[in-house]
Specification:
The protein contains eleven helices and twelve strands. With 269 residues, the protein is α/β, with parallel strands linked by helices. A seven-stranded parallel beta sheet has the order 8-7-6-11-9-12-10. Strands 1-4-3-5-2 form a five-stranded mixed beta sheet.
Length: 269
């Protein structure tokens, strides 16, 4: 195993981990460099279990024993060790969840392959809050969603906050970024999916009503925070669906709404 003790925050070998709090930098840098950050021992173990390849590991010395089995599996991958203060200088935040790893991004899964055999698909339109993206993936993994599709402007599911909030379930649920939006919704329809938008329109049906129809293949579109679904997307779906609520409350947070909908609309046979 290759262990490297860090003495300076300017060490060029750990450039993958510098200033992780700079969201704009990371949104541009991680996809461009073909990498993402797995934060916490549990998350990086899930990334490795999903077959993702590590570029390096980054941790305080006290976590070495906890991850000894991982390092033994990847003897050629460098392990960078430093004091808590030094690691904080490098990353820009206090690292208290065990360890981090710079991971190689997996190759994108072609859309036809992603949809093969799927019965429930979630589609995220321009959801930019990475906490919401991660929470939706966690619900999708728990409640039987077979795949997640994200629009071109949607937040990155492999951004470190998304990965952390999802507890690593972004590695369990196959996903892809669409290129033609909302045109790619027609691909879903061509594959036999009923495409439903979670939106408060005048003709939206109640969630339990759609569930009673027992759709064989269903794609549920979730809209961006605040503005909701775009007019073009609403024109491209088969129907709109809503969660019935008490008077005085018109909506839930998109992540909470997704969990309710995934459960209610799960396949019943």
């Amino acid at each position: 195993m290759t262990f490297h003790r860090l003495e300076s925050a300017d060490d060029p070998r750990v450039s993958d981990y510098t200033q992780l709090t700079d969201v704009h930098l990371r949104k541009l840098r991680e996809p461009a460099e073909g990498m993402y950050i797995a934060e916490s021992s549990r998350v990086l173990r899930r990334a490795l279990a999903a077959g993702h390849r590590p570029r390096s590991f980054f941790l305080a010395e006290k976590w070495l024993e906890d991850l000894a089995d991982v390092f033994a599996q990847y003897p050629d991958v460098p392990v960078y060790i430093g004091s808590a203060a030094l690691l904080e200088d490098i990353t820009g935040f206090h690292l208290h969840r065990g360890a981090m790893a710079a991971m190689q991004r997996p190759e994108p899964v072609p859309l036809p392959e992603l949809l093969a055999g799927a019965r429930r698909v979630a589609v995220l339109e321009d959801i930019v809050d990475h906490t919401n993206v991660g929470a939706i993936f966690r619900s999708a993994a728990a409640l039987g969603v077979d795949a997640v599709l994200v629009s071109p402007r949607c937040g990155d599911p492999l951004y470190r906050r998304s990965v952390r909030v999802s507890m690593g379930t972004v590695f369990q649920v196959p996903w892809a970024r669409l290129e033609d939006w909302p045109g790619d919704l027609q691909v879903l329809r061509d594959e036999g999916f009923t495409v439903a938008a979670m939106e408060l329109t005048g003709d939206a049906v109640d969630l339990d009503e759609l569930a009673a129809r027992r759709p064989g293949k269903l794609a549920l579109v979730l809209g961006t925070e605040g503005a909701g679904m775009s007019a073009g997307t609403l024109a491209a779906v088969d129907l709109a669906v809503k969660i019935p609520m008490r008077p005085g409350v018109d909506s839930l947070n998109v992540a909470a709404a997704s969990a309710v909908a995934f459960w209610e609309l799960r396949p019943r046979d």
